Structure formats: structure tokens, C-alpha cells
Amino acid sequence: MSTKPIYKQYLALFAVGVLSAFAVGGSISVQAQTESQPTSAPKFTEFKPGQTKISGNGNPFKPESLRQTEKPTGGTRGIPDGIDDRVPMLSRDYPWSTIGRVEGTTTDAKQYHCTGTLIADDIVLTNAHCVIDPETHQLSQKILFKPNVVNGAVSNRRDVAQAVQVIYGTNFTGNDYSNQVNDWAVMKIDKPLGRKYGYLGWKSLSPQTLINNKEKLFFVGYSGDFPNPTKKGYEYLTAGPGYTAGFQAGCSIVKEEDNVLFHDCDTAGGSSGGPLIGVIDGQPYIVALNNAEIKNRRTNQDIINLAVKISFLDELAGNR
Fold this sequence. Notes:
By secondary structure, the chain is mainly beta. It has helices at 6-10, 176-181, 194-197, 207-212, 312-316; strands spanning 26-30, 33-35, 43-46, 87-88, 99-105, 111-120, 123-126, 142-147, 161-168, 185-189, 201-202, 217-221, 246-251, 253-257, 260-263, 275-280, 283-296, 302-309. The chain has a single domain (34-291, 307-315), classed as Trypsin-like serine proteases (Thrombin, subunit H). It is built from 5 helices and 18 strands. Residues 33-84 are annotated as: Disordered.
């Protein structure tokens, strides 16, 4: 008798921002975080191979006017290993400049936020559950992208962009497996922010290559539990949790089951759509897309986190 993979035992994608539990002792929750905003719906389109041209074609881009730095800082909770290794992402330099908050409004006027990354002049990568409610299958009515939010602020208020078109991998009417492996979306925005903030490339590496490179990945996400401004040293981050991204170095893809990646980066609601980044030949590339966490129902501690393979971007751009 075969044993079901862990994600199949626990998998059930919940409504945006909701953290739920199973009777079987574990739960999986998508990692959007609820919040607030206005309305004007983008055009939504289902995925077709070769559907869109992505200007960078998978290569990163840094504007000449931007500095580049490896330091995201500008200098005992529900986490898989029980230790929170995140630090605030305070840098306005590349590549940290490419990552921002996705903020949206659902059809029933609920607000939420996720994480998104510029991958071209006017294209942002995030999760499907950050643009579509997994329970109701309704499309979000308005979606904003705010690049490089630090302590609640972008470097220029005029750089807040709105999604005008969304291509998604799933609308959550399929089975659990299909929903998990296709939980991605790309948004065309109404401003070419990548020219100013730069954008990340992507690399479709084999699962074994990712697993073999232990503690080599970076993760960035606007988790709704981070930073805690009441914690010593974080008092100056007055905008509160979810308004400064958390950064973690040295996390890993720990295994792969049936096209589902498992990772140990520190995440929470709001970090959905956050990039797992690898440095390849000295350049930063997205190698996987964070999308969910499996929790212990009794302790609320993370068991493991899930990620989507990035190979769909090659198909979307017609690169294979």
C-alpha cells in the first residue's frame, strides 16, 4: 500500500488570508494577508504556452542609476526549525528594489496583501491565490503593486502601479494537486517600474540541483507577522507588521514530491508570491515561488513550507 505525499495528506488551499486547520493534525494555508483598498478590475486570462513576451527573457536587469548590494538590511514562533532567522529588508538597492507588496480587494470588499517581484519592465510575478479567491473562485477587483516598500513607504508615491492584466495558472476549480503546482500568476502593470527598480531573472533548475545546494537560497516576503515593532531593535519600524519585508539567507529546498517543492525558509501570511532567490554566476535569479505553509494544528508551528517550480515562466514566454 503506497503512502500519500505529505502535501496530498494535508492539502486544501484556503481563502485569501485565512489560516485554517485539519482534524488530521496538520493544515496547509496560503500565505496572503488580509487588509484594505478601492476598485477597478484588471483583465484576467488563463495560461497558454508562449502567451506573452517577457522583455528580460529570464535575465536580470539592474538600471545604471541603481547601486547593487548583497546586504538587504542596508547594513520563537511558528517557523519550521523553531527559530526565526528573518531580518528587515531595508535596502533600496538592487536586487531588493525589485520586490514589493501586492495589495488587492476581493469582490466582497475584503482587502489583503501578498508579495510580488518585478521580472520585466511592467510584469510582476506572484501567486494565483493572490489574485483569485481559492474558495469562491472570484477574481480580485483591484490589484496594486508597491515596489520596495520599507516601513510602509515606497521611495516615490507616484511609483504605485495597478494591474491591468493578469495571467494565472489556476482558478482553483481543479483538484488539490493541480491547484498547488499551478499556484502562480503574472500581472501586467500600468507603469514600467522595472526600468527604475530593475527586475529579477529566473532559472528553471532541476529539483535535485536545488536540493543539493543546501542553505544557498535567499527568501524575501511581506509576512503579516514581521517585523514586530514592540521587539527590541525594531521600534523604529512604526508602520507595523507586513509593511517591511523579512529577509532570510541560507534557506533550502529540502525535497520534491510529484512536482511540489518543499522549503524551510521562514514565512507567514503575506509572504505568498515571495521569491526564493539563488545567486548564479554572480547574478540573482528566482528559482522557486513560495506559496503555502503546512502547520501543526495543535501547536500552530510550521511543519514545512511549499513552493511552485519556476519552469512555467519558460512556457509562458515560449522559451521551451
